[in-house]
Design a protein that fits this description.
The protein is of the alpha/beta class and 318 residues long. It has helices at residues 78-100, 128-131, 136-146, 211-218, and strands at 2-5, 7-10, 13-16, 63-70, 108-110, 115-117, 119-123, 154-164, 168-171, 189-195, 229-230, 233-234. Helix content is 14%, strand content 18%. The longest helix has 23 residues, at 78-100. The protein is globular, with a radius of gyration of 18 Å.
Length: 318
């Protein structure tokens, strides 16, 4: 299944714009708000290397690999925005850490003086017009397969340099079983688009940045078993990263951010954290069980090498 999203960025928060029926308010422990803003970026923060394939891995652990795809009849803008892709990827990891003390294990490569986000540059088989069609997600997945980006130990986040009616789309495995064999533990593809070519000549090149939202889908959120499930999303709070909102559950800009599973009862289960000394509360698949995020209590963003993240994940009591 593929989830499709139109996203607004409001006061630094990523919010879906589609409308759903509301639900009554509940008294819950909401958890910390994600309020991390996008830091400035300079092209000098990336070393200028362009790779047509996946660089040698610096870890044998599961990772999220970045890809840039551009049309067959257009020029690559990769070097112009590579540092921004790196910024957005690491910011998504910081956002997750800020909220739930976990982080994304990004695929990185060794540079001359530091590690950089490992990004594969792919010239698409398709023209800009084809890539702007309603088949764009399937065309991108075709491009990845043709380039051999099919590692079952990786999830792929793609920046597509073509206009779209959406900010992002993602594979969204439907499998509620709490087991290492869950389909969400396999390879998935998430695509970041240029939403209606918005500000295509501006500093961000028209690209959206719903990385954490799309990766949540790729890692198994939100399962039909969840109490506030609705079409792969949730409907209990407009400031929830995975919820869609309307007048009954509006996004509140005064909060200045959003929650990663409001109430911890739909797609995140802190009771499954082996450092908490408690047993799992929920009985369906939740994102914290994913092997593609770092173990509990580790913060890779404190190190430019993400050294803290390169350890095995362990979640007893699936």
């Amino acid at each position: 299944m593929v989830r499709t999203h139109k996203i607004l960025v409001v006061a630094g928060a990523i919010v879906a714009t589609m409308l759903l029926a509301g639900v009554a308010a509940r008294a819950v422990s909401a958890g910390p708000l994600i309020t991390v803003q996008a830091p400035a970026w300079e092209s000098s923060q990336y070393d200028g290397v362009t790779l047509a394939g996946d660089a040698p891995d610096v870890t044998t652990l599961p990772t999220v690999h970045a890809v840039y795809v551009y049309p067959s009849d257009a020029s690559s803008r990769f070097l112009k925005f590579a540092a921004m892709f790196q910024r957005d990827a690491r910011r998504a990891s910081t956002m997750l850490d800020t909220s739930v003390a976990r982080a994304i294990r990004w695929d990185e490569r060794n540079g001359a003086a530091a590690r950089y986000l490992d990004v594969t540059v792919v010239k698409s088989k398709y023209t800009a017009k084809r890539l702007a069609s309603n088949q764009q997600f399937s065309l991108v997945t075709n491009d990845l397969s043709a380039r051999g980006l099919t590692n079952p130990n990786k999830k792929y986040v793609v920046w597509l340099d073509a206009p779209s009616s959406y900010c992002g789309q993602s594979d969204a495995p439907t499998d509620s079983v709490r087991s290492p064999a869950n389909r969400a533990e396999a390879r998935t593809v998430s695509v970041i688009y240029r939403y209606y070519q918005y500000d295509v000549n501006g500093p961000n090149g028209g690209f959206c940045a719903p990385i954490l939202h799309e990766l949540a889908h790729g890692m198994g959120a939100v399962q039909p078993s969840a109490p506030h499930y609705t079409g792969g999303h949730c409907n209990d709070n407009g400031n929830d990263l995975l919820c869609l909102f309307n007048s009954a559950i509006p996004y509140d800009p005064n909060l200045g951010g959003y929650y990663y599973d409001y109430g911890n009862d739909d797609y995140w289960d802190p009771a499954a954290d082996p450092t908490s000394g408690s047993t799992a509360k929920l009985r369906w698949w939740t994102v914290n069980l994913s092997r593609f995020i770092c173990p509990p209590k580790l913060n890779p963003e404190t190190s430019t090498l993400q050294a803290d993240c390169n350890t095995a994940n362990s979640n007893p009591g699936y």
